[in-house]
Specification:
- The protein is mainly alpha-helical.
- The protein folds into 2 domains: 23-171, no CATH class; 188-297, no CATH class.
- The termini are far apart.
- Helix content is 36%, strand content 4%.
- It contains 10 helices and 5 strands, in the order βααβααβααβαβααα.
């Protein structure tokens, strides 16, 4: 008698996806195989740690350093599926449930197509960190699966941050600041309206908390900042404030940001604050308020990014 199949822990699908093989990997990581061609020494050095981190993210299959990504066994040729009835096309291909499925990023939609394949009950998507090698971005697929409730990722010291550091070392390139999921600047905020909303309900502006990927919120100051943003930045940098200081500082910040064509660094903000001739008067004490989920945006040690 055949032994019953074990379910994949943490992965659930609705009734439309009952045909999925729960023993098969949803994602196959090809990052090491791709980077090995250009940086073999670095890849060989860090491969054990990389595979360990991927396993902790429930990526149960990784291609070896010298394993071919685009072999004859992999089902490919689906790059332009968005230009047709991709659901009908996927349904036809799903009948055989291939071990590997490759979506190339020729039309800039590899990650979207891969996610559509997974949502229809497919598995075996070959992906890579950062989408290197013109493949779907594995970190974006993982986070989408988490946000949609297919898998659960928790913890304040998430492996995603360590994977990003290893990837940048192996690839000898820095991930763009506004790259989805792993970019350094995706949790930066500047507009005063956004700051106020984030203080009240972070989920309105963040599909997932920054701690999940080992990131931190950062309060930027620039042309679009309001008085509340200026006050919060002063609190973060432990600078004295008053109504007169906030008014004068807001004007200087906008002028300086406009002349620079960018936001201000913390040191530039401190210089502007020190140049004010307005005497510092302590603000009126406010009654204590109940802490909210956004309080961690305000308080941080001097010179460090916001939590």
């Amino acid at each position: 008698m055949d032994k019953p199949k074990k379910s994949n822990p943490g992965v659930t699908f609705d009734s439309r996806e009952e045909t999925i093989d729960v023993n098969a990997p949803l994602l196959i990581d090809a990052t090491l195989s791709i980077l090995h061609n250009s940086h073999p020494d670095r890849v060989n050095e860090l491969a054990p740690r990389w595979n360990e981190l991927m396993k902790s993210l429930r990526v149960s299959a990784t291609l070896a350093q010298n394993e071919l990504v685009f072999n004859q066994e992999a089902l490919s040729g689906l790059d332009g599926a968005f230009f047709s009835d991709y659901r009908a096309l996927f349904k036809e291909r799903l009948e055989g449930q291939p071990d590997r499925v490759i979506f190339r990023n020729d039309y800039g939609c590899a990650t979207g197509l891969a996610m559509a394949w997974l949502e229809m009950g497919g598995h075996g998507v070959v992906a890579s960190f950062g989408g290197v090698g013109s493949l779907p971005a594995i970190e974006e697929l993982l986070m989408t699966l988490h946000v949609t409730g297919k898998i659960s990722m928790t913890g304040s010291a998430h492996p995603m941050r360590h994977l990003k550091e290893l990837f940048e070392y192996m690839d000898a390139k820095r991930i763009p600041d506004f790259k989805a999921v792993t970019g350094r600047g995706i949790f930066a905020i500047e507009s005063g309206v956004h700051v106020n909303a984030l203080l009240k309900e972070p989920s309105l502006y963040e599909p997932f908390p920054p701690e999940l990927v080992g990131a931190r919120r950062y309060l930027g100051i620039g042309l679009h900042s309001g008085r509340e943003s200026i006050r919060l930045k002063c609190d973060c940098l432990e600078l004295p404030t008053s109504a007169a200081i906030l008014k004068a500082l807001l004007k200087k910040v906008k002028e300086k940001s406009l002349s620079l064509g960018r936001g201000l660094t913390d040191s530039e903000f401190e210089i502007l604050h020190s140049s004010l001739k307005v005497p510092a008067r302590p603000a009126k004490e406010k009654p204590p308020r109940e802490r909210t989920a956004g309080d961690d945006v305000i308080h941080r040690p001097r010179g460090r990014a916001l939590h």
